[in-house]
């Protein structure tokens, strides 16, 4: 069952380990019961590593959105 009563699936992996990443995408597909024809989407902040991950995800059929951290609206209220 998926929903609010199920904890999120959080994973950590070694940086740039693309085999582990591919396996995690496969495991996520299984968890959500997604067939091969269902699009997987991803979103992350590129940061210093740039766009290599974006390009890799696209080769894996993952629709990816790269976010520029400077464009994310945040509260600057410091309680003053």
What do these coordinates show?
The chain has 80 residues and is an alpha+beta fold. It is 29% helix and 15% strand. The chain contains 2 helices and 2 strands; from the N terminus they run H-E-H-E. Strands 1-2 form a two-stranded parallel sheet. Strand 1, helix 2 and strand 2 form a beta-alpha-beta unit. The mean pLDDT is 84.
Which percent bin holds the helix content?
A: 25-40%
β-sheet strand percentage = 15-25%
Q: Please identify the structural class as seen in this structure.
A: alpha+beta
Order of helices and strands: HEHE
**What integer is the average pLDDT?**
84
List low-confidence stretches: none
> Which term fits the overall shape?
globular
Terminal residue distance: 45 Å
Number of helices: 2
- Number of DSSP strands? 2
Rg measurement, Å: 16 Å
Placed side by side, the strands forming the largest sheet appear as 1-2
Please give the largest β-sheet: 2 strands, parallel
Provide keyphrases for this structure.
single chain; 80 residues; alpha+beta; two-stranded parallel ribbon; 2 helices; 2 strands; 29% helix; 15% strand; globular
List the helices and strands and how they pair.
Layout: H1 18-32, E1 40-45, H2 52-59, E2 62-67
Parallel strand pairs: 1-2
Question: In brief, what are we looking at here?
Answer:
This protein is an alpha+beta fold and 80 residues long. The chain has helices at residues 18-32, 52-59, and strands spanning 40-45, 62-67. Helices cover 29% and strands 15% of the residues.
């Amino acid at each position: 069952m998926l929903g609010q009563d199920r904890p999120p699936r959080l994973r950590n992996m070694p940086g740039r380990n693309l085999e582990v990443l591919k396996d995690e995408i496969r495991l996520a597909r299984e968890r959500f019961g997604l067939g091969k024809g269902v699009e997987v989407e991803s979103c992350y902040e590129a940061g210093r590593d740039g766009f290599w991950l974006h390009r890799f995800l696209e080769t894996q059929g993952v629709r990816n959105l790269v976010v520029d951290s400077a464009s994310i609206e945040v509260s600057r209220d410091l309680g003053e």
